[in-house]
């Protein structure tokens, strides 16, 4: 729920409106009780006009803030449309989750609401009423208006910066780094010892031939897995649970997402089977779109989308594709140093109860390289950057993780051979591919011209 609310535009502005209503009702009451006790030095800084002047000021503030808010919403929508059409639809979460945009909208709507709420308390003294001007409240409305003007200028500057492609890619990279650090830690567990969280280099149990098939009730993307609920269900039913789909996968209702089997070999009763299926279906949560909550590959997917969009015939921007591949290379090198094996959840007796699949280096490399290699096959700069990505990844990874890199290098060489390239370009790419071979053997050859 927190992740879902974070990517929405409405929660923070709604909170601002609610606070403005409370302040707009409470502050005039406080004004009425303390208006004769305000020190003279402070009164000089407060609004000193007549009720008619106060009404005019508040009405002007309310009217202008509606216009400014509408302009801000329009600019935000245009930015979202630009990001979706020019870069990737999966970048929209980055914009809607921008706290600066949310705070700016909250300030504008709060200023409008506060001015309108205070306006109803101003009395002109007609019809036998006693005139009343909430001086502090009108002053606060004036200060909020000045803050809104400043926020509008800063918002325009912020928006101009955010729609730059380099800023977008840096934001995606930073968010992916935070997700990787949160889910995989600083570095892999290379000691072979079982960690407190249940991750180790111990081989996970292999499902037997006769297993209970586990499904989900709702189609969508696998958003997250409630590990505590899954472990509890496995312990209470004395079962071993294996989820073979990782976050980010597309799930279809009533199709298998995993399996379970009795730990002691005794068959499940019908009640236990039904309970286990229900608990697993509840613990494996699906949604309409991928999120970065537990999806370590989501950042790579966004960067690859940017690269592929840049290589489309309507845009033809290979430089952006090259820069996106650079960010992907940095993420892959960071992932290669971490434990990408299945996540093992253990009970209080340190017995494996749940096995959760995570994307391995081959999966992640396919996400980062396959589509740019296909759609950028005719662009030497893209092919050269892919070769450099493989070289960097080979240098940062252990020899046990080299087979996916070797396979990707073979695909790269096949693609190069199939292209109609100039002799100098082909020779340069051949040399870069040889550099990957050297990096796979632990040697970093000095750059040389073919």
Please summarize the sheet with the most strands: 5 strands, mixed
Task: Kindly report the oligomeric state of this protein.
Answer: single chain
Please, how many helices? 16
Rg (C-alpha, Å): 30 Å
β-strand amount = 5-15%
The percent range for helix content is 55-70%
What is the average per-residue confidence, as pLDDT, rounded to a whole number? 90
Q: Record the strand order, biggest sheet.
A: 1-5-3-8-7
Structural class, from secondary structure content? alpha+beta
The count of strands amounts to 8
Your description of this structure?
The protein is of the alpha+beta class. 59% of the residues lie in helices and 8% in strands. It has 16 helices and eight strands. The strands form two sheets. Strands 1-5-3-8-7 form a five-stranded mixed beta sheet, covered by helices on one side. It has a three-stranded antiparallel beta sheet with strand order 4-2-6. A hairpin with a 5-residue loop joins β7 and β8. The radius of gyration is 30 Å and the shape is flat. The two termini are 55 Å apart.
């Amino acid at each position: 729920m927190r992740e879902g609310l974070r990517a929405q535009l409405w929660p923070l502005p709604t909170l601002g409106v609610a606070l403005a209503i409370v302040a707009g009702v409470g502050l005039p009451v406080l004004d009425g009780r303390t208006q004769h006790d305000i020190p003279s030095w402070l009164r000089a800084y407060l609004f000193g006009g007549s009720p008619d002047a106060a009404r005019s000021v508040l009405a002007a503030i309310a009217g202008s803030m509606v216009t400014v808010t509408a302009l801000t919403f329009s600019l935000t929508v245009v930015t979202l449309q630009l990001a979706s059409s020019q870069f990737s639809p999966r970048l929209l979460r980055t914009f809607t989750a921008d706290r600066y945009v949310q705070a700016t909208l909250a300030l504008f709507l709060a200023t409008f609401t506060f001015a309108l709420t205070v306006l109803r308390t101003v009395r002109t003294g007609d019809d036998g009423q006693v005139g009343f001007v909430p001086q502090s409240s009108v002053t606060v409305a004036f200060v909020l208006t000045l803050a809104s003007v400043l926020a509008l200028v800063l918002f325009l500057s912020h928006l101009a910066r955010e729609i730059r492609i380099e800023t977008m890619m840096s934001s995606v990279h930073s968010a992916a780094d935070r997700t990787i650090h949160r889910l995989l830690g600083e570095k892999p567990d290379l000691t072979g010892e079982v960690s407190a969280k249940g991750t180790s280099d111990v081989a996970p149990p292999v499902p037997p031939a006769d297993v209970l098939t586990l499904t989900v009730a709702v189609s969508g993307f696998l958003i997250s897995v409630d590990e505590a609920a899954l472990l509890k269900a496995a312990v209470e039913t004395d079962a071993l649970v294996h989820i073979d789909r990782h976050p980010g996968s597309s799930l279809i209702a009533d199709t298998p997402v995993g399996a379970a089997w009795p730990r002691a070999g005794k068959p499940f009763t019908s009640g236990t089977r039904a309970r286990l299926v229900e608990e697993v279906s509840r613990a494996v949560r699906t949604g309409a779109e991928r999120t970065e909550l537990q999806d370590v590959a989501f950042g790579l997917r966004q960067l690859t989308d940017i690269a592929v969009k840049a290589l489309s015939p309507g845009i033809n921007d290979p430089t952006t594709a090259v820069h996106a591949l650079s960010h992907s290379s940095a993420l892959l090198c960071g992932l290669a140093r971490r434990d990408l094996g299945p996540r093992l959840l253990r009970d209080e007796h340190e017995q494996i109860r749940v096995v959760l699949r995570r994307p391995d280096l081959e999966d992640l490399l396919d996400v980062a390289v396959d589509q740019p290699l296909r759609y950028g096959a005719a662009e030497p700069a893209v092919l050269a950057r892919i070769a450099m990505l493989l070289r960097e990844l080979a240098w940062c990874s252990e020899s046990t993780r080299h087979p996916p890199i070797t396979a990707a290098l073979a695909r790269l060489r096949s693609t190069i051979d199939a292209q109609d390239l100039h002799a100098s370009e082909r020779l340069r790419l051949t040399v870069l591919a040889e550099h990957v071979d050297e990096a796979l053997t632990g040697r970093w050859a000095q750059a040389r011209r073919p």
